[in-house]
Amino acid sequence: MKYAVVSISGSQFKITEDQKITVNNLNLEEGKTGSTDQVLLIADGDKIEIGEPTIKDAKVDYKIVKNYQGKKVRVFKYKSKSRYRKTMGFRPQLTDIQITKITTK
């Protein structure tokens, strides 16, 4: 089984071909394709290649499936004995991508 560890949008993911993952917003339109050269590890059966910090000439291609807002996250601050309470909300901007190809030379 071929898999890779890549850095996309500030996070690291273990991916395989034809897999769908959710990442932070990539600012690309739906249906567009993109690629990243931030490949940290590639494993193909018993052959494992580790980058220092990345693998040269390795690339991962992906396709943008959907851009959307995530569920609201509530943040609550509280200080005892001072009547201080504050509630804030945050909705992350997310992108679903599908991995199309993992290439190396």
Q: What this model shows, in words?
A:
This protein has one domain. It contains no helices and ten strands. It has strands at 2-8, 11-15, 20-24, 33-36, 39-44, 47-50, 59-69, 73-79, 84-90, 93-103. The strands form three sheets. The chain has a four-stranded antiparallel β-sheet, with no helix packed on it. It has a four-stranded antiparallel β-sheet with strand order 3-10-7-4, with no helix packed on it. It is elongated. The relative contact order is 0.31.
Helix and strand arrangement:
Elements: E1 2-8, E2 11-15, E3 20-24, E4 33-36, E5 39-44, E6 47-50, E7 59-69, E8 73-79, E9 84-90, E10 93-103
Antiparallel strand pairs: 1-2, 1-5, 3-10, 4-7, 5-6, 7-10, 8-9
Based on CA atoms alone, the radius of gyration comes out at 19 Å
- How far is the N terminus from the C terminus? 18 Å
What's the count of strands? Answer: 10
Helix content: under 10%
Low-confidence stretches: none
Task: Going across the biggest sheet, name each strand in turn.
Answer: 2-1-5-6
Q: How is the main sheet built?
A: 4 strands, antiparallel
Which outline best applies?
A: elongated
